[in-house]
Specification:
heterotrimer; A alpha/beta; B mainly alpha; C mainly alpha; B: mainly alpha; Arc Repressor Mutant, subunit A; 2 domains; two-stranded antiparallel ribbon; 80% helix; elongated; C: mainly alpha; ABC transporter involved in vitamin B12 uptake, BtuC; two-stranded antiparallel sheet
Chain lengths: 258, 369, 285
């Protein structure tokens, strides 16, 4: 028997009364490298965010190593989408990486020499040491992503949740990230990453979760990542359409809300 | 009561004031619609503050207090300030909100400097300039109404003539470019019209509160309709209503400033719309969200029940306990009442209706496992 | 320069410095316009507290104003979270409504006190030296020194103690949440400090200069620096500069002090803008 790194039970999330995730039941064993794939709007980011408690679900629960997230926060590292922060913020690469340690430090206490060294080590691992004093807006997309990964690395977590780590990065960065993921896996860590590129799924990940509002398929790549499931994930109409057929929907003057 | 009101309308000064407030309400309500839809609500705040140095400088240059001249100054300053904001956002990493704050405070501060220069001038008739700060509807003269009316008429006529273009600009300006409209020029024109509508209201509600007149009626009317045309008309109506109500309350009570009253009335109209609008209102939304979430939960229970082998309530509860905690029993009771399932002691059974609903869910989502 | 003038100058510098400190985090959170909202709506709190105490110098006024400041922030968030109005509309709606309430109360019930409406926008830094702190027969200088001074200390304490928390919850609130640093607490803490600063500065320089001092020097520093510590430092220096130059220009031309300070802040920003954008590179040392 294996330990379960992440258990998700009946997770259902709705935005503005439309379900984005519907009755997701998965349990991810410890030590796997799992990709989440699915079309745009399938709820991939939402899945990660609700595991972290950033989004309140309508129903369902998640447990990490058998405990609710709040109790085991320190074992979890989160790599948000690159676009989620303002890269004009006046700060340097080293500083951003050090932020990963703020949780350990607790309130008020400041990062010191030890924290700096940990951060430098992580930067080195991602080939970013030479950029440590750069203002973050001066980085390329790939370098920004590597900074985020270094920040997650210093957290010394057991479960890594990553939202599109390969989005808009150069080939060199992609290679570095893949090697890092494999190394983390060798160390027995569990990684769950949202992924876009279907061609590289089997190469980068050993497990896969295929998502389109519902969990279409879930398991080891070789069994699950097959033509039929891919078709189901990408070609089917959103399956929730009838669930909410009679429900209240907003309509707007323009697509944007006022 | 009715006598009182008819008396109010016979009062010449009050008639002038009410007329001014109505003109202000209609123009800002209609043009505010575009400002609000284009997420430029606070642009009005910045522009109206920036108008102050324009007014004072126009007075300094001409020595005249004629509304035409002062308002021209305001118009020019308003236009110049929106140009500065555009430059800041385009050429620096400063975001829109920062640009607004810079322009608003610096222009207004400069206006105060100019005002303190004017106040020292010998035999100047500067007393009238202060009223632009907070507005003094009671001092509106026939000449002011005339100027306001012409400005309002011109700006509304242009808006009406270019309705289609402005609609495109607010909704999707890139598309407008492709179709061949000069979107940048239209943008500038619309900003100028918004400046005019602000200038129209300055004497009545003043620079500080003018922005509220652009936002509140439009934000209120947005709640009642999904159509731009209706939204604009309703915005104008709400604006006019706030103007009349504010003016009447202020004239019938002592020491009640008109501007803040108008703003407060328009805010109350907005709050009412937010709560009670038939489609988007908060009450309606709360009701629907509650029902919708309940339905989603029921659907999950039904499909789980359909797939589970034991059909035992304990197994469901065991399974779903962390999911729905205490609410589960409540939901199951509700589902019993709705005749979706039957409960025999510890086991649950899908009724025919329940089974139909499960089939219905599964039919569409045949990939559900 | 006589004693009173010296006192006004010091007050101008203290006020500028205090405002730039919390203003730095305000602009980084893209909440620059919140300074406008808070500095106006606290009038309602002052007015209501005045109605209750009938004393314009009561400390209850400061409490009332702080509560109103926090209320403004909370109401804006509530309105925004309905998804029925956008954030900027919400700001514009809430502060104008509260400001109107403040003005109505003042015009109706407090017409003859110093709380008149002109003072609201402009403050009266020039009168500050007349209100002195006397204990027994000894003159301890203007009261405003002590008010602004303690607010300055509050700002310095808040920012230096919670520097790390402020930084992370401003840069990446989601990560802050995931790490167990509750961004909500930091947020309302900062808003409380901003409100207290606004009321302190409001009394001397008026609501519009509060906006100018909280946003213009920090945004100028934002253009010129790449590190948060440098940004705080530079905006503090620019704030002091604004106070000094603004005061001297005002006394030279005999014009409104707060207006002149806002204009000077704008001028410094314009220079930074030109240097940065048009590419007039400063000399290399």
């Amino acid at each position: 028997m294996y330990n379960k790194a992440l258990e998700v039970n009946s997770l259902t999330v709705a935005y503005h009364d439309n379900p984005v995730l519907w009755d997701i039941n998965v349990s991810v064993p410890e030590g796997v490298l799992m990709g989440i794939v699915g079309p745009n709007g399938a709820g991939k980011s939402t899945f990660i965010k609700s595991v972290l408690g950033l989004i309140k679900p309508v129903a369902g629960s998640t447990k990490i190593y058998g405990k609710p997230y709040k109790e085991i926060r320190k074992k979890v590292a989160y790599v948000p989408q690159r676009g989620s922060v303002d890269w004009d913020f006046p700060t340097t690469v080293l500083d951003v990486v050090t932020m990963g340690l703020y949780g350990d430090l607790g309130w008020i206490k400041r990062p010191g020499k030890k924290e700096k060294e940990t951060a430098l080590y992580a930067l080195d691992k991602l080939g970013m040491e030479q950029y440590k004093n750069r203002q973050i807006s001066m980085l390329s997309g790939g370098q920004q992503q590597r900074t985020f990964l270094a920040r997650a690395l210093v957290q010394k977590a057991d479960l890594y949740l990553m939202d599109e780590p390969f989005q808009g990065v150069d080939a060199f960065t992609e290679k570095i990230i893949v090697n890092l993921l494999k190394e983390l896996k060798r160390e027995g860590k569990t990684i769950v990453a949202v992924h876009h590129d279907l061609e590289t799924v089997s190469e980068y990940f050993d497990w896969v979760m295929m998502l389109n509002t519902r969990c279409i398929a879930f398991g080891p790549c070789e069994d699950i990542f097959v033509g039929e499931n891919i078709k189901k994930t990408y070609c089917n109409q959103p399956v929730y359409s009838l669930v909410t057929k009679n429900n209240f929907k907003n309509s707007y003057v323009s697509e944007e809300r006022v | 009561m009715i006598d009182n009101i008819t008396y109010l309308f016979k009062d010449y000064t009050l008639k002038t004031v009410i007329l001014g407030c109505v003109i202000l309400g209609i123009t800002s309500g209609i043009l505010g619609t575009f400002a609000v839809l284009r997420k430029q609500s606070l642009l009005g705040d910045a522009i109206s503050h920036s108008a102050l140095p324009g007014i004072v400088i126009a007075f300094l240059l001409t020595g005249s207090r004629s509304p035409v001249i002062l308002l021209t100054g305001a118009l020019f300053a308003g236009w110049f300030s929106s140009l500065c904001m555009m430059l800041i956002v385009r050429y620096t990493k400063i975001k829109y909100d920062g640009a607004l704050a810079i322009i608003l405070s610096v222009f207004f501060g400069f206006g105060m400097v100019m005002l303190s220069i004017v106040q020292k001038l010998p035999n100047s008739r500067q007393a009238g300039l202060n009223k632009f700060l907070f507005g003094q509807a009671a001092t509106l003269l026939r000449e002011d109404i005339f100027t306001m009316g012409i400005l309002a008429a011109v700006s509304l006529l242009i808006t009406f003539a270019l309705w289609k273009e402005f609609k495109l600009l607010s909704f999707n300006s890139e598309f407008g470019n492709i179709v061949g409209f000069p979107m940048k020029k239209l943008d500038l024109l619309l900003t100028c019209l918004i400046v005019i509508s602000i200038v129209v209201g300055l004497q009545t509600v003043g620079v500080v509160l003018m922005s509220a007149m652009l936002i509140a009626p439009a934000a209120a009317s947005r709640q009642w309709t999904d159509r731009l045309e209706i939204m604009a008309v309703l915005g104008g109506l709400f604006g006019a209503l706030s103007g009349i109500t504010g003016a009447i309350i202020s004239s019938s009570t002592s020491k009640m400033p008109t501007g803040p009253l108008i703003v407060l009335v328009s805010f109350i109209i907005f709050l009412f719309s937010l709560l009670f609008a038939p489609k988007r209102g908060i009450l309606k939304k709360l009701y629907y969200t509650y029902n919708n979430n309940l339905k989603i939960k029921q659907d999950i229970i039904l499909t789980n029940l359909y797939h589970s082998e034991t059909k035992n309530i304990d197994s469901i509860i065991q399974n779903e306990l962390w999911v729905f905690d205490k609410k589960l029993i409540k939901i199951i009771k509700k589902m019993e009442q709705a005749n979706l399932l039957k409960r025999h002691d510890q086991s649950l059974e899908l009724t025919l209706t329940g089974l139909k609903r499960v089939k219905h869910i599964l039919l569409v989502g045949d990939s559900y496992e | 320069m006589n004693n009173a003038q010296m006192e006004i100058l010091i007050l101008a510098i203290l006020t500028s410095l205090t405002c730039t400190l919390c203003g730095t985090f305000l602009v980084l959170r893209k909440m620059a316009m919140m300074s406008d909202a808070i500095s106006h709506s606290i009038l309602a709190g002052i007015a209501v507290a005045y109605l209750y105490t009938k004393n314009i110098h009561s400390p209850l006024l400061i409490i009332g104003a702080t509560i109103t400041g926090l209320l403004t922030v909370a109401l804006v968030e509530v309105l925004k979270n309905t998804n029925l109005v956008s954030e900027d509309s919400a700001i514009g709606l809430i502060f104008t409504a509260l400001f109107s309430i403040g003005i109505i109360i003042i015009s109706k019930y407090a017409h003859n006190v110093h709380l008149d409406t002109d003072a609201v926008l402009l403050g009266e830094i020039a009168f500050a030296p007349f209100r002195r702190l006397n204990i027994g027969n000894i003159d301890f200088g203007p009261k405003a020194f002590y008010i602004i001074g303690s607010i300055l200390i509050l700002n310095i304490l808040f920012i230096s103690l919670f520097y790390k928390e402020l930084k992370i919850s401003t840069f990446d609130p989601a990560l802050a949440f995931a790490l167990g640093i509750t961004p909500g607490i930091v947020h309302y803490g900062l808003m409380g400090v901003v409100s207290i600063t606004a009321i302190g500065a409001f009394d001397t320089v008026g609501s519009i200069l509060v906006v100018a001092l909280m946003t213009v020097p920090p945004l100028t520093a934002y253009l010129l620096t790449n590190k948060l510590k440098h940004m705080i430092l530079v905006s503090g220096i620019l704030g002091i500069l604004t106070g000094v130059i603004g005061y001297h220009v005002a006394s030279l031309l005999d014009v409104s002090i707060s207006g002149s300070m806002a204009s000077v802040a704008g001028l410094i920003f314009a220079i930074a803008f030109i240097v940065k954008v048009i590419g007039v590179k400063p000399l290399n040392f």
